[in-house]
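Researcher: I'd like a structural prediction for the single chain below. Treat it as a standalone chain; there are no partners to consider.
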Amino acid sequence: MEEAIKGKERVPPATSSVAFDIKGPWSVLGERLFEIRREEEKILGNTSQVLEVVRSLKGEEEGEAHYLQRIKELEGALLQATKRSQNDHREELGKLYKLDNAEWANKSEVARGEFHHSLSDVSRAHSAHVKDLQKRIKELDDEREALKEERIWLRNELAKAKEVSSEAREATSEARRREELLKSEVHSLRALVENSSGWRGRRMEDLEEAVRRAVKIVSASPVGHHVKNQAAFDVLLQTLVDVSILNQENIRGPVVLPFCGPKGPDRFFDARSYYAKGVPPAGSYAGWGYQLPPLRRSPKEGQITPPRGQMVRPRRSSRSPEARSTREPEVTCLRSRLVPQPNHQHLCLKELSSRGGVLAASQPHH
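Model: Treating it as a single chain, here is the predicted structure.
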């Protein structure tokens, strides 16, 4: 008995551990059920509002039917009064025609005068009553038109409410789609940033291959799809000239020259036009965490290359402001794709300049 009691005492810790393991999924399931119940409450609220509108429409239709029935009753009463007055008039005329005696001649004349007088009074009263009935009928017609307009307005409001509900559902789906698109764009840009670190040790065959890679980067990047014009290639070529990758001779090659545009390559070497456009100096170009050191010229090929061992890469830390600043072009460009901004072109050109700095840092060391 004591061993059984000890065994039972050892069971609760195991059950408590199992309950603790299941607590996480059940809490998530409870949150989802709470969200589903909240959406159901919203749907029930909208359904109750629609039912109230339908009830009000039914009440107005019943009122309109009541007014129509009242109009029919009034028209029937008017017809009966007219027939009654005509019958009375015929009866009185018949009585007057029967008074053929001479002694009733004067009395008949007096009675005829009174009859005509009373008949005129009756006709005046009848015409006044008819006018009142016509006025009432007109008022009822106006009320019916007002009820029709109100019913049309309520139907339009119901249609607008349905349209707003459908637009809200479409906006929710569009927001989810944009969120997925934003996640994929961030993932691709992170992969591009991670792959850019391997460019430093890769030796390119010649300058033409370097320019081709730069053009591919501009065309394949999300920014390239927004600024795919001559300005993007102008910024790229200006960056290559600033870091001394391109000079007066190799910029006129058959591969680079078509990207210079109709103004020619000389404008990239003009210091006045360079500073007039507001482009920062060559030392300020940095691409996603790389800083360009002072360049030196190689004695063999006559090309300026950065000295070895001087590439400075900032420390990656979630609390470092430098790490946050290196991600600003990526996040800014992603936001600009979703929300139009007035300085969108300036930000895209700035990112192209920073990518030009990465291309300069990826040249082989001599």
